[in-house]
Amino acid sequence: MTTNFYAPPSTIRSGRVVLPDQEARHVRTVLRGEEGDEMTVVDGEGGWYRVEITHLAPEQVVGTILERREGIGEPVVDVTVGIGLLKKRSRFETFVEKAVELGVRRIVPLRTRRTEPESMREERLRNVMLAAMKQCRRSRLPALAAPHSLADVGTTEAELGLVCHAGDDAIPIQQAVGERGRVQSVLILVGPEGGFTPGEVEEAVAAGYTPVSLGARRLRAETAGLAALSAIILASGGRGEERAPAPGSS
Q1: What pLDDT, on a 0 to 100 scale, did the predictor assign at position 101?
Q2: Which residues contact residue 154 at a Cβ distance below 8 angstroms, ignoring those fewer than 6 apart?
Q3: What is the DSSP string of the chain?
Q4: For residue 75, how many other CB atoms are within 10 A of its CB?
Q5: Which residues have CB under 8 Å from 208's CB, separation 6+?
Q6: At what angle do helices 122-135 and 89-102 cross, to 10 degrees?
């Protein structure tokens, strides 16, 4: 089977995997899986498993782990994107889906001076992220934070903080990443429709963020977020190497 399946760590123990109900139904009814078939399972925390189906019943699919790896499909740099909430939910969902495919580690929705009041369908977004993780063959499910104000987003957990800005003081994003050499974590801030206000950019710079440009063209907010994420991932070496499984893990 070429499809990746998701099983949380709680369902993986003693060398076996028990698929969640929805994943099990997909194996049985859509793919017509049979005992003896092999499938790939990811646990959303970096674990990747090659599994042989050993028990297939109407209500359950169980497999035996043949091989485990760690970090399959994950980039070498942890990138958090803080992006202003968008007017159209569909556009924000598109950003979330594609950001997962590109390798984002964490998404922080931002409430800024130019964002309009809008609710966030958290469960819907998490389902989008889960589907994207499986589709693009990642092994780690990115985190989705609750909406933050810009003042609440610091750089204490990131080695490099960047803020997208079209002003004359902004430098190309590739230059900003390249000048720091290889870093393990980056936090990039992207404004909503209309971008950040000059005051917000000043606040970010005062907090240690470097203003960066994405080029001469004016991009939609979701496009800017994806362009920034892609530039950081590529400038940092793209896709990372898989890591050996933890000793004693199953």
Answers
A1: 97
A2: 207
A3: --SEEE--GGGEETTEEE--HHHHHIIIIIS---TT-EEEEE-BBSEEEEEEEEEEETTEEEEEEEEEEESTT-BSSEEEEEEEPPSSHHHHHHHHHHHHHHT-SEEEEEE-TTPPP----HHHHHHHHHHHHHHTT-SBPPEEPPPEEGGG--STT-SEEEEE--STT-EEHHHHHHHT-S-SEEEEEE--TT---HHHHHHHHHTTPEEEE--SS---HHHHHHHHHHHHHHHTTSBPPPBPPPTT--
A4: 22
A5: 155, 161
A6: 30
CA distance 41 to 93: 25
**Using one digit for the tens of pLDDT, what is the confidence trace for 201-214?**
999 999 999 999 99
Could you tell me which residue, 179 or 78, shows the higher pLDDT? 78
Residue 248 pLDDT grade (very low, low, confident, very high; cuts 50, 70, 90): very low
Instruction: Give me the mean pLDDT over the 78-104 stretch.
Output: 95
Percentage of the chain with pLDDT > 70? 92
| pLDDT, position 147 | 92
Angle, helices 89-102 vs 221-235, to 10°: value is 10
Neighbours of 30 (CB within 10 A): 9
Cα–Cα distances in Å, from 139 out to 45, 75, 220, 235, 247? Answer: 7, 11, 29, 22, 18
Please tell me the distance from the alpha carbon of residue 159 to that of residue 215, in angstroms, as a whole number: 24
How far apart (Å, rounded) are the C-alpha atoms in residues 93 and 100?
A: 11
Among all chains, which residue has been given the structure tokens 């499984």?
Answer: 245
Q: What pLDDT, on the 0 to 100 scale, is given for residue 3? A: 74
How many Å apart are CA 8 and CA 174, to the nearest integer?
36
